[in-house]
Design goal:
The protein is α+β, with helices and mostly antiparallel strands. Among the domains are: about 240 residues, no CATH class; about 260 residues, no CATH class. The chain contains 26 helices and 22 strands. α10 packs parallel to α13, α10 packs antiparallel against α18 and α12 crosses α13. Bound molecules: arginine and glutamic acid.
Amino acid sequence: MTGFQGFRNLFLKTGILALMVGFCAPFSSAKEGMWLPPKLKLHANDMRAEGLEIPVDQLYNANGTGLNNAVVLFGRGCTGEIISAQGLVLTNHHCGYGSVQRLSSMQNDYFAAGFWAKKKSEELPCPGLTVTFVRKMENVTDKITYDLPDTLSESSRNEVINIRVHALEKGYKLSTGLDASIKPFYEGNQYWVILTETYRDIRLVGFPPNGIGTFGGDTDNWMWPRHTGDFSLFRVYAGTDGKPADYNKDNKPYQPKQFFSISTSGYKEGDFAMVYGFPAITREYISQSQLRLITDIQDPIRIELRTKKLDVWNQAMKADRDVFLKYTSKRAGLANGWKKWQGELRGLRLNKVADKKEEQEFAFQAWANSESSLPYARYLLPEIQATTSAVRQALRAEEYIREGALGIELIAQGPAMEKLLEAWRKPKPDELKKVHDAWVGFYKNYDPATDEKLFSVLMPAFFEDAPHYVPAEFYFGLRANNGDYVRWARHVFGTSAFSSEARFNALLASADSNRLLADPAWQLYHAIENIRKQQVLPVLADYARRIQPLNRLYMAAQLAKDSAQRAFFPDANFSLRLSYGHIKGIDPDGPAGYSWQTNLNGVIAKDQPSVEEFRVPEKLKLLYEKKDYGRWSIPYHDTDRTVPVAFLADLHTSGGNSGSPVLNAKGQLIGTNFDRVWEGTMSDLYFDPSVCRNISVDIRYTLFIIEKFGGAGWLLKEMNLVK
Ligand code: ARG
Ligand code: GLU
């Protein structure tokens, strides 16, 4: 890279970072954006004009009374909301799914039966589950990026930044007593510290059966119209001082600083709405050449290999409830990405996003060529283009290795095999027990016969599609079995110590490292890892090293070019964000017409007792027949009544926003976010307000199911229900 070091230095001299501190842009009414709560003041006028009825500092403030104290990071990948003074948390069904799986067995099949505690003492502890509160966020860019001399190489720059980040995190932790984490925003043009508190005694309170909580399954996933009661309830417990504590049966329900009031009076199309949560990752500002890495390579390869994997898993799960219970949680995650990427590719294609980026880049280049204050800018796009083309082949290989060879669970256990070897070689207290426990956990959710089948299906794809990256050892293995993948699979699974818990235990008792080193699973793993370490990972690391500063500068230049005309939100990075917009419907592709809300009649209309995904529980059908809706019904066709189930809004969300509170103009809870529409799954890369919609469960459906279906009306007494 010739010009790069030079123009980076030029950039540093121009000192345009100052430009990025605040926005003075007038806001358009297109509702793209997920905003940093401490910066909502900049949007206050716009939000009020759109319909917000409370001051923005009720949504977030630094003195501990903001509604941010009622939004939680649920586990490691979802959002939840506090809905009572006794630490009750509402989130999605699919967010509680993994925890419930750990509590489930053939005897206690909560996916079939649901779970409803009848009093606090019946709530079930969920080991490992955490709930994290964000107390405060502060812009610390000045404390991280000061005095970085032009002569600094990128790696030294990163080193200095890392040192400052760690020192500052430590300082914040000492001075506040809170956990502190500093994250980059705008591709490293800003840094913010996030001060959090994590509770670790979390208990299951309520969980509808899959017939409600995953109703519609993969068929309806990422689609509208939707009829899923995708919610579950947990409770946060604290030590006697109200602080986070390890599980103890004497812990007390946590008394939160804030909790959401619940609006029972509904909403209508056009009403102001907000979603408050933890979107994980968006990449709205990348160049066309980077977008192509996703659309040409990542998405298609993942879809191809996951289609094969899902075929195998689905069949095995259908045939055997035990396999279902073992695989249901990991399968859901796999299928969720698989379907989303299909929608994403389709949306990007139909909306001609590559062309739009090209147009935008053309304008950018014209601007850059004549922009004397940012002389480096003109080199950025060509440099990004060259850098991305150099990574394409390695990226392709990586996808085939990860989703193909390492998509086979037995081979993917390689690192756990290494840990075992390590524990034998350098015995440390407790280490062997830890390793053993991890393997026990693995076997709890593992079916070797299913994995063997998968081996015989994924291996041929790997050989055919990525022949240059197939290790010699793989060819030997296949040849030794006459080129027959099924035979090869049988041989590997029949002889490996790791494909059977009994053989694993024998190996453990023998503590014989030679046996481990000769194991076929170990050998396959190492053959593929060798290729990966030699030919793939170095190229990817080099790419990351080059693209990171380019992206930072490209972001900075886009901000410099357009900040006066539009507000830029920082890409999602799992930090707390608020999006605002309106309740708004869509005319989906397919036979259904325009709508913005679904109801219980629609659930019943989809009932198909012979199809697991669409099997409505008998008790729900009974409630429907008796119209036993309690307080939760709305008028339906003049003379009838029904219960609202799900609704649409044009709020910008992403993965991680699952379980997020959806709020009305008063900041009251009207629903729980859980998905996006098919037309808009591309919104992590390109948000188009005319087709992007988020899907939420109506809070009245949640309350109806808790009270009438679950018989857990006692929970409603601790909530603040407002008309
Ligand atoms: N698509 C939603 C999300 O990304 C819901 C996923 C859970 N539902 C399912 N059928 N897998 O998480
Ligand atoms: N269902 C997604 C999740 O689990 C949330 C929403 C989305 O990606 O649209 O995070």
